[in-house]
Amino acid sequence: MLIRRPPDIKSSEITPERHYFNRRELLRSAGFIGAGALLSQAVAAADGIPASHRRLAGVQRWPGSLRDAPNTFEEITTYNNFYEFGTGKSDPAEASGRFRPKPWKVKIDGETDAPGTYDYDTIVKPHALEERIYRLRCVEAWSMVVPWVGIPLRDVLKRYKPTSRAKYVAFETVVRPAEMPGQRSRTLDWPYVEGLTIAEAMHPLTLLVVGVYGVELPAQNGAPLRLMVPWKYGFKSIKSIVRISFTEKQPPTTWSMSAPDEYGFYANVNPEVDHPRWSQATERRVGSGIGSLFAARQDTLMFNGYADQVASLYTGLDLTRNF
Ligand SMILES: Nc1nc2c(c(=O)[nH]1)N[C@H]1C(S)=C(S)[C@@H](COP(=O)(O)O)O[C@H]1N2
Ligand SMILES: [Mo]
């Protein structure tokens, strides 16, 4: 996503340095893992995760989960975009050791009858946690399948009483240059900001994420609280949220301010609308294939495969102009 001319983009930014030999991928292709086994696997898979990651209690399985094999915990936590820690895919895992996600507060303001600054526990604790296996499609044309743990955002937002004037919801990431080395450079305008229409924010698929693979969210994935909007390009799913504002007007968003011709407000996954510098018709599933020569590409799906659930949000909207 760096704003550079195509010849300056190193192939290492498009193709990962390493491809993991994905054990589950092998087992799946060999027919050892059926769909039923996968559904019960994700929470149980926390067993193989280092004990330093705190396990989340009382996580319920969501019946709508994808049946594809999830990416490994290692893939999900070492191949990241989180520019606050640097622009390389391994920077977020390697440079986030100083980041402290506790204690954590979120300011809720704007068009609400319950403005205030609330503790993480006040926001999260009243809700049951769900594990939801979603596709994640980055605008850079790679993808993963991730077993997130979270709460439907709308259940949280309703408790904070948006007024009838609330047409959008704006989100802001924490600014802590002492803990986030990427923020000491002006790669982007900090804080990273994002936004959704109120209908998108209240859609039942929109998740406020607190964990992955049954454990608390690692720093590199947006600890302790991040968004996941599965039918939109990954950059909409803002990490380490410290502010949620209900607004009347469409809020500014980091990537659309940084490169308005390349990234729009909607950012719905759409294989028919190419990025000005590359095709969006296909994607590379991280961890698939062995080495970049054989990296399997697959078709990108309209709304990332969630069209049945979300297309009605956009009736009458020109998706080419509103990209
Ligand atoms: N604050 C913040 N949020 C962010 C980003 C970022 O750089 N800063 N990167 C986005 C992009 S481009 C993607 S693809 C996803 C990646 O999430 P993951 O690293 O958990 O897979 O986070 C999104 N959220
Ligand atoms: Mo992304």
Task: Describe the structure concisely for a colleague.
The protein is α+β, with helices and mostly antiparallel strands.
Task: Tell me what you see in this structure.
With 323 residues, the chain is an alpha+beta fold. The chain has helices at residues 11-14, 23-29, 35-44, 73-78, 91-94, 120-124, 153-159, 198-201, 254-258, 307-310; strands at 59-61, 105-110, 116-119, 129-137, 142-152, 168-173, 193-197, 207-212, 215-216, 226-228, 241-247, 282-285, 297-299. The strands form two sheets. Strands 1, 4, 5, 8, 9, 10, 12 and 13 form an eight-stranded mixed β-sheet that branches. A five-stranded mixed β-sheet has the order 3-2-11-6-7. The chain has a single domain, classed as Alpha-Beta Complex (Sulfite Oxidase, Chain A, domain 2), CATH 3.90.420. Mean pLDDT is 89; it is low at 4-41. It contains ten helices and 13 strands.
